[in-house]
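Consider the tokenized backbone below.
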């Protein structure tokens, strides 16, 4: 509370820039987040004091002026009694030239703050403000025009004017007919055409034109302004070439942004009437001119447009249109292949983590998205022809192979001689070519695994080629990834090579592999292992796991002898990937071939878990490994159930790692249907819940432990799905529901999703009559639970939707409301009415948040809904009143 007064005093003292900046920022934050602290009768005094401060401090520092302007704007948006604030501000300062900079600053940030996330002014007030700003917008433009006339070529003022104009364009409140004939547009394009315009002014003018183009997205309703902007931008081509000649990259990037925004705005017109009027294809020519610029950052700006154009044409699927746009896409692909070339003096393999590496990945994605316009096969053949017929330098070869790798998967592999020839030639590449070419060729082979599957004769030469790569440090990880791809796609053909894979797996650490590549190789090996005859699987799995098990045993023995703790996660992750992907087809009644192996490995995993029980990261990896082991053999892991649950529960009492709850949910999923296991699983749940509730009941417990909330409700949901009556008849259910109601306001994506899914599934067991004999009992138990917690749940859900939860969570909330309504509509109507009555009806600034009619309309929309998505739409609209 004291911050208001202290900030005000610091601004009056005007000691130095730092203290004033601190005070101005504090004032802004208080208005944004704590405006409700001030009684309404103080609002006018606060406004007058802020206006005095900005007047007195206007020459101290521009950043202070911005903070105070934001404070004034945020106040104006929340203070319902300040009517026509734009008009009053312009009246007050219009004639004082020295006040002009801060007046324009306020007028710039005001439209920007209308949709600010930090102000919850609600849709009603927002609509009122936008109408008000639209009404005064021509006054603002007139003010800006007169500023430009007075300023002449004074750069600082022009920058301010363009920023302000852009801000009003962004809000979408300027009258497009009024703007079409306005002198400011002419000034904008003159500034952009002039060669001597400074970098800062150029950027401000470019931003403003982009905002204007964005504002007329709906071209048909803004014809006049659209035409002015369209013609204006087309005049900038010469200026672009001038900037290229002067090597002024900043300006080149600005022009490219403008050209891209032009194409985005007129996209639909261009596709609807290509070459006519504002569908003029010169717009695409401008982008291709930019694509020809030697710096790849320039072409990258336009990627989103090309992606959208491709998406549009794909949806329309009209051959005649494809023919019109195909040449443009061909030229684009040509430019992209050139931009992907590494420097001729580049040494080593291509980097994928630096800026250029990321650019190449984006090129690869874009090529995949637009290749259908050119035809994958045609493009692939043309690229191959350039390698076959010419004698290109290594960097051209590498870039061509890179683009071929991007489209290889989209080429039809059925009896395709070109693909077969490419594979044949690639595996014959000598070891003397540049290492980057070998690297990319290895990636290409991995992308062509479908071709290998259709032509098994290539399997041996391909594997030999990849094995060479695996033995060379820079190529090893790429080769491992390609071997993994081939194992995934050619599982049956690879069975004969299993021994070779096993040899690689045993010697994994003699190769220079990244962690990810090593795990990928084991995944490939496991996928092939699952296709071996059942009687061979156990022995081979045992061999495959042996290396990791021995390593874990060695770590445990070292630990007990010299007390040094070593990290076992590498080995745990490798075991996890083996269990995860060894999924042979086992007929009913057959013993699972992996059962014996997992039984033998359990003691090592148990010891590892005990040794590292305090370390969350290692425990998490242990649980992950056990999860996949249990999933691998399903009911075959029954012998592990007792010792595993006992160990989980005892460690969890001391170290409540949430992954134990997750592992518990896996056990319930696998064994919850087994009559003999239900009581044991319920005991496990109750034992895990006690420490969990203690943790979550601490101050900010829910907020500080979202993973625990997520995993607890996954576990509870699994119980509801597998054995609802066991859970509903227990004493723990009351506490779980109370916890769910409390956690409903938690704005953590996964945690919130789990809580809502639990509530939805719980109530659904009393709604869906699946003709099981326990349906009436379930219905009765849900009825008791809802009688106890129903009103509290609905009130909490409505409050959370309005004040705590982001919009993406609303569909999940809607599902819970829908199930409650299906369960007992009349009672739900009453609960919802009570919940709505409890919501606040106006803001602290005196604006109406929600009208009586809006409340009754919402109540009616929800309670008369015939499907869940109608409830969702109603909540979406309603909660906007509180955002």
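A designed sequence for it:
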């Amino acid at each position: 509370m004291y911050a208001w007064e202290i900030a005000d005093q610091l601004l009056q003292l005007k000691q130095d820039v730092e203290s004033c900046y601190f005070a101005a920022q504090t004032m802004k934050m208080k208005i944004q987040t704590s405006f409700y602290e001030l009684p309404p009768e103080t609002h006018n005094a606060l406004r007058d004091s802020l206006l005095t401060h900005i007047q007195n401090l206007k020459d101290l520092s521009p950043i202070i002026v911005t903070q105070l302007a934001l404070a004034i704007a945020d106040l104006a948006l929340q203070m319902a009694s300040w009517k026509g604030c734009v008009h009053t501000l312009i009246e007050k300062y219009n004639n004082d030239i020295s006040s002009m900079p801060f007046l324009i600053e306020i007028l710039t940030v005001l439209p920007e703050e209308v949709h600010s996330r930090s102000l919850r002014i609600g849709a009603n007030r927002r609509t009122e403000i936008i109408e008000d700003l639209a009404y005064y917008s021509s006054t603002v433009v007139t003010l800006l025009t007169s500023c430009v006339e007075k300023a002449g070529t004074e750069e600082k003022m022009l920058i301010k004017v363009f920023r302000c104009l852009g801000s009003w364009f962004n809000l979408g409140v300027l009258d497009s007919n009024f703007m079409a004939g306005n002198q400011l547009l002419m000034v904008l394009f003159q500034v952009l055409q002039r060669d001597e315009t400074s970098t800062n002014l150029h950027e401000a003018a470019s931003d403003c034109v982009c905002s204007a183009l964005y504002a007329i997205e709906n071209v048909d309703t803004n014809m006049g302004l659209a035409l002015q902007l369209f013609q204006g931008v087309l005049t900038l081509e010469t200026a672009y070439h001038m900037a290229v000649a002067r090597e002024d990259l900043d300006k080149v990037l600005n022009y490219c942004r403008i050209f891209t925004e032009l194409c985005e705005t007129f996209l639909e017109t261009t596709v609807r009437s290509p070459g006519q009027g504002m569908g003029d294809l010169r717009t695409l020519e401008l982008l291709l001119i930019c694509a020809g610029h030697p710096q790849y950052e320039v072409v990258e700006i336009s990627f989103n447009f090309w992606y959208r154009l491709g998406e549009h044409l794909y949806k329309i699927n009209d051959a005649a249109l494809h023919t019109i746009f195909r040449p443009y896409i061909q030229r684009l692909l040509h430019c992209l292949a050139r931009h992907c070339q590494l420097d001729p003096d580049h040494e080593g393999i291509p980097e994928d983590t630096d800026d250029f590496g990321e650019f190449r990945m984006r090129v690869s994605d874009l090529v995949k998205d637009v290749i259908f316009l050119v035809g994958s096969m045609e493009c692939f053949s043309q690229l191959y022809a350039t390698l076959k017929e010419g004698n290109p330098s290594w960097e051209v070869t590498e870039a061509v192979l890179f683009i071929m790798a991007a489209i290889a998967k989209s080429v039809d592999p059925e009896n395709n001689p070109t693909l077969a020839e490419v594979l044949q030639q690639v595996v014959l590449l000598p070891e003397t070519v540049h290492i980057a070419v070998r690297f990319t060729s290895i990636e290409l082979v991995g992308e062509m695994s479908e071709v290998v599957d259709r032509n098994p004769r290539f399997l041996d030469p391909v594997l030999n080629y990849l094995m060479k790569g695996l033995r060379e440090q820079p190529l090893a990880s790429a080769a491992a990834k390609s071997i993994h791809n081939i194992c995934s796609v050619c599982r049956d053909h690879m069975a004969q090579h299993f021994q070779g894979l096993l040899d690689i797996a045993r010697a994994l650490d003699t190769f220079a592999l990244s962690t990810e590549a090593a795990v990928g190789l084991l995944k490939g090996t496991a996928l092939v292992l699952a296709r071996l005859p059942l009687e061979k699987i156990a022995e081979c799995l045992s061999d495959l796991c042996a290396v990791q098990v021995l390593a874990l045993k060695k770590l445990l023995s070292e630990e007990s002898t010299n007390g040094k703790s070593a990290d076992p996660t590498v080995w745990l992750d490798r075991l996890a990937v083996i269990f995860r992907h060894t999924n042979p087809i086992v007929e009913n009644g057959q013993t699972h071939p992996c059962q014996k192996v997992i039984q033998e490995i359990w003691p090592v995993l148990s010891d590892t878990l005990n040794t590292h029980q305090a370390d969350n990261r290692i425990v998490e990896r242990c649980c992950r490994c056990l999860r996949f082991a249990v999933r691998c053999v399903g009911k075959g892991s029954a012998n592990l159930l007792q010792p595993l649950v006992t160990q989980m529960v005892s460690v969890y009492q001391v170290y409540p790692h949430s992954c134990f709850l997750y592992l518990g949910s896996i056990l319930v999923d696998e064994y919850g249907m087994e009559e003999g296991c239900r009581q044991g699983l319920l005991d496990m749940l109750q034992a895990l819940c006690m420490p969990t509730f203690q943790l979550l009941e601490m101050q900010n417990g829910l907020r500080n432990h979202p993973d625990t909330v997520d995993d607890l409700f996954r576990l509870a949901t699994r119980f509801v799905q597998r054995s609802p009556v066991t859970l509903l008849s227990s004493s723990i259910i009351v506490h779980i529901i109370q916890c769910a109601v409390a956690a409903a306001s938690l704005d953590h994506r996964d945690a919130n999703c789990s809580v809502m899914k639990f509530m939805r599934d719980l109530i659904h067991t009393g709604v869906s009559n699946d003709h099981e004999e326990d349906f009436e009992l379930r219905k009765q138990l849900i009825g008791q639970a809802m009688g106890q917690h129903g009103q509290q749940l609905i009130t909490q859900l409505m409050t959370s939707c309005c004040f705590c939860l982001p919009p993406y969570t609303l569909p999940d909330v809607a599902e819970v409301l829908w199930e409650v309504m299906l369960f007992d509509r009349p009672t739900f109507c009453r609960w919802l009415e009570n919940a709505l009555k409890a919501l606040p009806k106006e803001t602290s600034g005196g604006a109406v948040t929600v009208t009586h009619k809006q409340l009754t309309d919402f109540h009616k929309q929800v309670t008369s809904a015939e499907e869940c998505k109608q409830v969702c739409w109603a909540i979406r609209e309603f909660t906007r009143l509180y955002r």
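The radius of gyration is 34 Å.
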